Amino acid sequence: SSQQPIATDPAKMEEETADHQEIQEKVRNRGEQLERAKESGRLFGANALALLAWMTEMEETLEQAEVISIDPVVMATQLQEQTHITKDITDHKAAVEEAVETG
Fold first, then answer.
1. What is the pLDDT of residue 90?
2. Do the beta carbons of residue 30 and residue 74 sit within 8 Å?
3. So what's the pLDDT on residue 73?
4. What value does the mean pLDDT take over residues 74-102?
5. End-to-end CA, the chain
6. Per-residue DSSP letters for 20-84?
7. What is the model's pLDDT at position 41?
8. What are the contacts of 11-19 at 24+ separation with CB within 8 A?
9. Does residue 12 register a pLDDT over 90?
10. How far apart, in whole angstroms, are the C-alpha atoms of residue 49 and residue 69?
């Protein structure tokens, strides 16, 4: 490897110092970008796991849903349960769409 001679000219030394500082700034910025990307990845992973758990739970809930009853008391309870399920799905809609969009 060929090493360049150390600059002794003050103007050249100043130029090299400026170049070195610019490189350090770029490295620091890239490091910060990497840290933000890693944190975003961690958050996405955690959110994806939570969403997957919710979706599994919701799938089980929907599979266990009973046929609508003709008994008004039972029907009222079923309607209340379906209203809760609908609200839960609506509450998670944005998270599902974001996960699908993000991949």
1. 94
2. no
3. 94
4. 90
5. 45
6. HHHHHHHHHHHHHHHHHHHHHHHHHHHHHHHHHHHHHHHHHHHHTPPPPPSSHHHHHHHHHHHHH
7. 84
8. none
9. no
10. 35
- Segment 39-48 mean pLDDT: 84
Q: Given this model, what pLDDT does residue 66 score?
A: 86
Q: Widest CA span of the chain, in angstroms? A: 96
Mean pLDDT value across residues 6-33: 89
CA-based torsion, 55, 58, 64, 69: positive or negative = negative
> Which pair of structure tokens corresponds to residue 11?
């103007």
* CB-based contact 58:89 (threshold 8 Å): yes
Helix 72-102 to helix 10-63 angle (10° resolution) is 160
Closest CA to 62 of 90, 80, 81: 81
Which of 52, 49, 58 minimizes the C-alpha distance to 85?
58
Task: Determine contact, residues 88/58, Cβ cutoff 8 Å.
Answer: yes
